[in-house]
Design goal:
This protein is α/β, with parallel strands linked by helices and 236 residues long. The chain has two domains: 3-129, Rossmann fold; 133-228, Orthogonal Bundle (Arc Repressor Mutant, subunit A). Helix content is 43%, strand content 21%. It has helices spanning 11-23, 34-44, 60-68, 84-93, 105-130, 162-172, 181-189, 199-210; strands spanning 3-7, 27-31, 48-52, 75-80, 97-101, 137-139, 142-145, 150-153, 156-157, 179-180, 218-221, 225-228. A five-stranded parallel sheet has the order 2-1-3-4-5, sandwiched between helices. The chain has a four-stranded antiparallel sheet with strand order 6-7-8-9, with helices on one face. It has a three-stranded antiparallel sheet with strand order 10-12-11. α5 packs across α7 (181-189), α6 packs across α7 and α6 (162-172) packs across α8 (199-210). The longest helix is centred in the middle third of the chain and has 26 residues, at 105-130. 29% of the residues are buried. The model has no long low-confidence stretch (mean pLDDT 88). The structure holds calcium ion. The site of calcium ion has 5 residues, from loops.
Length: 236
């Protein structure tokens, strides 16, 4: 049974939403302010968060920021009409969907279901990304052979750590696709990043250096993370 964390300080609305969610077959946890929401995410690792914007302690946006440092958990944000301008900020910080108050119960449950389904598909992709491929891949003068765990640049072996190799292999076999730092950490380190963790950025820095002229094929995607692109001035 998927667990939904409801973060809502209005008692009456919270009561209604909990009833709807339980009626639809979800287990529900409830937090009524920012700090306890963040604690609850860490303690009970829910499958989805329904997050009200205006909260005591700190607001939903701050909850979202903190959660997003370590987790790609789906988040459905609840907002009042007057806060419309904030939606843009929320999307940038990483909410997955929005619902404007007041909302109908059918619409609400449909959004929750859709988000959980989408997340499930993402998890499947993530599992596939973790699985070791065996095909040798090329990028200009770079050859990556996963079965031998070996990378060569202009014929010379590259000395890469296990995580550097994992990152390079993941980016290379998904050329052109942008990955978030949280996703890369999950896929390559095999566990979620802890708050303030810079392992992905540091590994990317080292990787760029080791790749020499090819280093700039690992692009920073603003507000997202990283992507591997085609080397400039070379064919596919
Ligand atoms: Ca509120």
């Amino acid at each position: 049974m998927p667990t939904v964390l409801l973060v809502e300080d209005e008692t009456e609305l919270a009561r209604l939403v909990i009833r709807e969610l339980e009626g639809a077959g979800y287990a529900v946890r409830h937090a009524a302010d920012g700090p306890s929401a963040v604690r609850e995410v860490a303690d009970s690792t829910p499958d989805l968060i329904v997050l009200d914007w205006m909260l005591p302690g700190f607001d939903g946006l701050e909850v979202l920021r903190r959660v997003r440092q370590t987790s790609a958990l789906p988040v459905l944000m609840l907002t009042a009409r007057a806060e419309e301008i904030d939606r843009v900020i929320g999307l940038e910080v990483g909410a997955d969907d929005y619902l404007t108050k007041p909302f109908g119960s059918r619409e609400f449950i449909a959004r929750v279901r859709a988000l959980l389904r989408r997340h499930e598909r993402l998890q499947e992709i993530l599992a596939a990304d973790r699985a070791e491929g065996t095909t040798t891949l090329n990028l200009g003068p770079l050859v990556v052979d996963p079965s031998a765990h070996l990378a060569r640049l202009d014929g010379e072996p590259l000395e890469l750590t296990r995580t550097e190799f994992g990152l390079l292999h993941l980016l290379l076999r998904n050329k052109g696709r942008a990955f978030s730092r949280a996703y890369l950490h999950d896929a390559v380190w095999g566990e979620p990043a802890v708050e303030g963790d810079r392992s992905v950025d540091n590994a990317i820095l080292r990787l760029r250096k080791k790749l020499g002229d090819l280093g700039d094929t690992i692009e920073t995607v603003w507000g997202v993370g990283y992507r591997l692109s085609q080397p400039k001035g070379r064919g596919p």
